[in-house]
Amino acid sequence: MLFPILFFILLGCVLSWLVISALLDCGVGQANPSNLQHHHTHSGVIPRLGGFGIAFGFGIIYLLGSLQLNPTDNQTWVHFAVGGGAIAAFVLGAIDDFRPLGAKLKLLGQILIAVLAYECGLSIDRFKIPFTEIVFDVEFISLLLTVVWFIAIMNLINLVDGLDGLAGGVGLMLMALLAYLGFERNVLFSMILALGMFGAIVGFLLHNFPPAKCYMGDSGAYMIGYLIAALSLLNSEKGTVLAALIAPLLALALPITDVAYAVIRRWIQGLPLFRADRGHIHHHLISSGLSRRNAVLALYAISLFALLGGLLTLADRGRYLPIFLGFVCVILIVVARGRNISTTSVQLLLSNSLQFRQEVRNALYLKHWLVVEVERMHSALHFWSDFRFVLKKIGVCRAELTLGEETRDFYVPHTAHEAPDLLWKETYATSRELTVSLVLYGEKDHFTESGFRLVADIAAEALTDACGKWKALNGCPMNFASTAKEVVDYQRQKARNVYRPTY
């Protein structure tokens, strides 16, 4: 048994590593430097092509695994749904990696993929309460449950992909668990695919572990998420949700907790639920002083601990799981006390955040207005004029903006601009040639520290998006000497003629 296990792992690893290496050597997938995003934790230009290596390794393993199938077992469509759905998820993500589709269109694509999987037999038809013999027939909402299951797992893996090696490591652990589940339940096809994907992810991590040479992108994340969801259903007994689904959910405790916290945090702050930010667990670890490598290792440890909980659902009918969950509660209580988290502090945080919601929404409206105005600006000086207007409107009392070698600043009269109480600084690159630095100041009479940090982050995001749009429209990075490229389109020229900067 050891030889086939090692064979599928090594084959997936070698195929994935070779494909990614070849693509990197050919320079495929190099991103436009002007498209760097404000909330990314990396600097520089890193291609998002790791999913291609993972998909190639999976494809070969799927073909080999198909040779082990029994053509008379009446499961052809189910097996096709696993492979075909995984490739469809990869294609959807790959399109978005190279030409962003937008959240609504991606969600529609995910729904279609999940519905096709359901129609092919991958469905949640019955639910068994864990560790009991009570079974509920949920066939009347089977389609809804199945679609939600696929979409949730696909997006969980994608959302956790914010740090070098993190999503790959989480996927690796889940594939190990699914391979074990396939072995335990004698689902050979599932075990082979999980082992092959385990190897393919290892091959990707050789290029992705900090410092990363490439990212898996949406293509790899959607594919891994789809396979986790599909193989979990394939391992379940006749459509009954047993430990085959509970175990992966426990193993995914880290991304589930992180996403749940992000949704609650953004709702309280008045931010769009799908807006990227720097409030995720890995951002906090890095801001606390950990390197990217140490941060991802710490998150690996947490994920392994969660994986242990998943394995305990399989051991002796989950007899030891309550002990594990009790231990988790003790850890959470100790952490809360160590960080001085109390009912009073939580109530104060909620109160301040809810009162600040309107200010956050106004800052977001101003950000969108500034980015749209880039199309009408004649020069970067006009941008500086409008950007000053935005900063003043959100409550900044002093600002310093550096574009390349030149710095511009302003202050609001009758404020404590000479010795401001709050400081926020951001430095990043908008291209290989130009470095941007933004320093913002605010007064404690008007902001809490967290509130000022939030609106300052929105202002910096507006600057990043505006610089990227200027680059896309005019073919050059923005600096204070930049002028807009001449346009021949009548409507755009007319829009520029009526533009009035906010001096």
Question: What do the pLDDT scores average to?
Answer: 80
Q: Tell me the major beta sheet.
A: 4 strands, antiparallel
Helix content: 55-70%
Strand content: 5-15%
Tell me, briefly, the overall form. globular
Structural class: alpha+beta
Alpha-carbon distance between the two ends: 75 Å
Whole-number count of domains: 2
Q: Can you put this structure into words, describing what you see?
A:
With 503 residues, this protein is of the alpha+beta class. It has 2 domains: 298 residues, no CATH class; 128 residues, no CATH class. The chain is 61% helix and 7% strand. It contains 18 helices and 7 strands. A 4-stranded antiparallel β-sheet has the order 5-4-7-6, covered by helices on one side. A hairpin with a 5-residue loop joins β6 and β7. α1 runs antiparallel to α2 and α6 packs antiparallel against α9. The radius of gyration is 25 Å and the shape is globular.
What attributes does this structure have?
single chain; alpha+beta; 61% helix; 2 domains; four-stranded antiparallel β-sheet; 503 residues
Entry summary:
This protein is an alpha+beta fold and 503 residues long. Helix content is 61%, strand content 7%.
Fold topology:
Elements: H1 2-26, H2 50-66, H3 76-98, H4 103-119, E1 126-128, E2 135-137, H5 142-159, H6 166-184, H7 188-208, H8 217-235, E3 240-241, H9 243-251, H10 253-269, H11 281-287, H12 292-312, H13 321-338, H14 343-355, H15 357-373, H16 380-393, E4 398-403, E5 406-411, E6 422-429, E7 435-442, H17 449-474, H18 490-497
Helix pairs in contact: 1-2, 1-7, 2-3, 2-7, 2-8, 3-4, 3-8, 4-5, 5-8, 6-7, 6-8, 6-9, 6-12, 7-8, 9-12, 15-16, 15-17
